[in-house]
Amino acid sequence: MKKLQKLPIGDSSFESIRQDNRLYVDKTRHIFQMADEDKYYFMSRPRRFGKSLTVSTLRCLFQGRKELFEGLWIKDNTAWEWKEHPVIVIDFNEIPHQTPETLTRSIWLSMDQTAHKYGISLNTDFIETRFRELVVALENRYKTQVVVLVDEYDKPIIDHIGKGKESVEIAFRNRDVLKGANVSPCLKFVFITGVSKFSRVSIFSELNNLKDLTMNEDYADMLGYTQEDMATCFEPYIARFDQVLMTLEYSREYRTYFHISTDYGMSEANCYKLIKKTEDILIRSDDFRLPDRKELAESDTEIRGILADATETPTERPEKNRNFIPQVKRSGIRLRPDCL
């Protein structure tokens, strides 16, 4: 049985997903389309929808990390110039924003870390001029335009809405922290994500001409998974899980390997091995044990009765027909494709 790639559950780093050879659903066609058509973009999507992974993919792309894109659409179908650009990432998921002062200080430190990474010293203290100083210094040092990526720009606002008058005031003050920043024409590409409608909030005073991709049909499937993705990229995972579910279902209903082997063209011995292995993985593993079973049983008479029925009541087995011999191969487990 072919070993499947691990799923990148909870991981929004394009770099680690590719380096660890985990499953990545190729969205680079849309990313190339963005970079090729315009330079200032905004997209709104719900949380846990792939925005951070898209930001991470863009960062690696503009850093010229060509090796991470082997086998992907943009590498195989375009003449993308794998030139390295300085990239500024402002991730509001990682920036404390309890108060406007905390937010300002956190962004200040984030810019300082970016400057240190690229070997630059910043001299100004005001956050608006500090951002401009960072962009200009990066362009002058590396003789190429700068990329700015902002993830969850509205988090410092949304996290304070609906929590009283004082929190609302904090939210609106947070909104204006970067609004006066003088973004220079040194920018190569800008991509901003959020969960709210962009027209309600502007993050940079000079970037009111952002192209909003939120309702753009050409980019509707750039984030998240489509039905086609499920039928192609995830088909092996679904088929394997479906096989496990089918085996457990028939095991529960018939409680006899003979019935399963007859219906699905398997030898009784192989069917036993399959169910035994499935039970070892899904039932007897420590990860699936019922926590505090003893305490739970002692705490409630009804629950104790249910647990007793589930673990101690003998299972009624249908009578086997010993004279019936199914015409099956006994050299391995074989399931018909239409059963998956």
What does this structure look like?
The chain has helices spanning 14-19, 28-37, 51-62, 73-77, 100-117, 127-142, 155-158, 165-175, 227-232, 235-254, 257-263, 268-282, 293-299, 301-312; strands at residues 40-44, 87-91, 146-151, 187-194, 211-212. By secondary structure, the protein is an alpha/beta fold. The longest helix is centred in the C-terminal third of the chain and has 20 residues, at 235-254. It folds into 2 domains: 14-225, Rossmann fold; 235-339, no CATH class. It has a 5-stranded parallel beta sheet. Residues 299-318 and 324-340 have low confidence and may be disordered. It starts with 13 loop residues before the first helix and ends in a 28-residue tail after the last helix.
Could you list some keywords that capture this structure?
5 strands, 14 helices, Rossmann fold, 2 domains, globular, disordered C terminus, single chain, 340 residues, alpha/beta, five-stranded parallel beta sheet
Would you list the SSEs in sequence order as H and E? HHEHHEHHEHHEEHHHHHH
Alpha plus pi helix count: 14
Neighbour order of strands in the largest sheet = 2-3-4-1-5
Oligomeric assembly: single chain
Binned, the helix content reads: 40-55%
Summarize the structure.
Helix content is 44%, strand content 8%.
Topology of this protein?
Blueprint: H1 14-19, H2 28-37, E1 40-44, H3 51-62, H4 73-77, E2 87-91, H5 100-117, H6 127-142, E3 146-151, H7 155-158, H8 165-175, E4 187-194, E5 211-212, H9 227-232, H10 235-254, H11 257-263, H12 268-282, H13 293-299, H14 301-312
Parallel strand pairs: 1-4, 1-5, 2-3, 3-4
Helix pairs in contact: 5-6, 10-12, 11-12, 13-14
